[in-house]
From TrEMBL:
The keyword Transferase applies. The record marks 150, 206 as: Positions MEP for the nucleophilic attack. It comes from Demequina lutea. The record marks 15, 22 as: Transition state stabilizer. This is 2-C-methyl-D-erythritol 4-phosphate cytidylyltransferase. GO terms for molecular function: 2-C-methyl-D-erythritol 4-phosphate cytidylyltransferase activity. The keyword Lipoprotein does not apply. Pathway: Isoprenoid biosynthesis; isopentenyl diphosphate biosynthesis via DXP pathway; isopentenyl diphosphate from 1-deoxy-D-xylulose 5-phosphate: step 2/6. Keywords: Isoprene biosynthesis, Nucleotidyltransferase, Transferase. Pfam families: IspD.
Length: 223
């Protein structure tokens, strides 16, 4: 079984309040996208990165020397479109091969989680890392509020692992059916494929706000 990875990094990251694409923001002198690619390079030698169309050269430079064959392609107008573009770059892989779809915004997800995901897709079409929810969660904000049972909830992280045939098929059908989702496993589940969960990790938290970045800077800065 071949294994490749897609890193989505084409977002602007405007909530971070920086004037460069989020994935190029450095921690300890290394851009977020390079942190993510370096972790993935320990399990795969082939990585596709979706980048903002006007920053391709900067991303190629940021990824220079990562220990894998890295292609940088212009992303789409949504995360879902960007993943579809990334998967299209892997057209030569066969349906039974595997792909990890990861967000550059979660660059510090530990390699141990990749292992759990890859083991899970030996018997499933897809696997997601899930972290227990620590906050009490409500739905219907601004309207009729409903409290949800926290013990049954989990926060979904990336990377998500797939048999590539399943995620390709789900993306193609979702595009035709006009279905939009915030992750890829929900599409795969929607079209009837078998989805497993594995334990996620707090280090896989998404970097969204300046405070998230500061927390990782404190943890990963060597100076
Ligand atoms: O916006 P959000 O935080 O959900 O984005 C998740 C990931 O998707 C980020 O790594 C971002 O760079 C990526 N993305 C993308 N193409 C887009 C929008 C977001 O690759 N058009």
């Amino acid at each position: 079984m071949n294994l490749a990875a897609v890193i989505t990094a084409a977002g602007s990251g405007s909530r971070l309040g920086r004037d460069l694409p989020k994935a190029l923001v450095p921690i300890d002198g290394v851009s977020l996208v390079r942190w993510a690619a370096s972790y993935l390079a320990s399990v795969t030698d082939r990585i596709v990165v979706t980048a903002p169309a006007d920053a391709i050269d900067d991303f190629v430079a940021a990824l220079d020397g990562v220990a894998a064959r890295v292609s940088v392609v212009p992303g789409g107008s949504s995360r879902q479109d960007s993943v579809a573009v990334g998967l299209a770059e892997l057209a030569d892989l066969s349906d039974d091969d595997a792909v990890l779809v990861h967000d550059a915004a979660r660059p510090f997800m530990p390699v141990a989680v990749f292992g759990r995901l890859l083991e899970a897709i030996e018997h499933h079409d897809a696997a997601i890392p899930v972290l227990a929810v620590v906050d009490t969660i409500v739905s219907g904000v601004g309207g009729e509020v409903e409290y949800l049972d926290r013990d049954r909830l989990g926060a979904v992280q990336t990377p998500q692992a797939f048999r590539i045939g399943a995620v390709r098929d789900a993306h193609k059908r979702a595009a035709a059916d006009g279905i939009v989702a915030t992750d890829d496993a929900s599409l795969v589940l929607h079209y009837g494929y078998r989805l497993a969960t594995v334990e996620g990790d707090p280090l896989g938290r998404k970097i969204t706000y300046p405070e998230d970045l500061e927390a990782f800077e404190r943890r990963f800065s060597s100076r």
